[in-house]
Amino acid sequence: MMISFRRWLFISLSLSIATSIIPQARAGELSLALANSTCDAMNKVEALYTARHPVQITNICKSSGLLAKGLLGAAVKADVFVSADREWMDFAIENGLVAKDNITSPWSNALLVATANNSPIKHLEWQELASDQVTLILIGDPSTTPFGRYTKEALESSGLWDKVKHKIQTQKNVQLVAETLATSSPGTVGILFRSNMTNQLRKLHDVDKKLHKPIRYFMAPLKASTGNAEVTPFLEFMKSKAVQDIFHDEGFDVSAP
Predict the structure, then answer these.
(1) Distances from the Cα of 18 to the Cα of 4, 23, 26, 84, angstroms
(2) pTM of the prediction?
């Protein structure tokens, strides 16, 4: 059947208008399973990245152990895993969650002893954690948090663990230690990552790095993320100087291992 010129013109215009109002394709999605201590820095990284790339990023911030166990049990679904120690990344390797060859180790950190700004404790040596002036010590849960594991190792290797364990109160993650410590009672100190210090806290003592294993972070794409085109460009961006500068400013060491 022949179509009149007028009808053809009407159909063409209608299609053109319809095409012009169809929304753009939805931005890609990326889900990141992040060790709690990296979340503040990663928020800044993502703001920089998404300003240039149409991608929607979701952060899952927990202790490295809870993330690794959640990824194994499928309670946590993510494209990239960032662990605050080698042990939980090894757990991910052993359980087939990530490929060993895809792991990078972009940052390190340090432990310190801190207290609230208004604390009466003005100076504290490491061995003085066992003294009467310290009544409560906040640390991470050594079974799931790397900073808690490093802390316990430092206390054990210096012969302090048995002397102070009755004072210790564990928290689920490093941010909780910082938040709890900021409003704590006199005599309370906390042991946390340097990168998680806040304006409400005051450093008392740097923990000797010789007392524990080197603190390194490990990052890798999940095998389950294969096929997500957003993963590779994001991981390439994570190697950039802009990202290194953000992590450096947040208190991380960005030197190579």
Answers:
(1) 21, 10, 18, 50
(2) 0.84
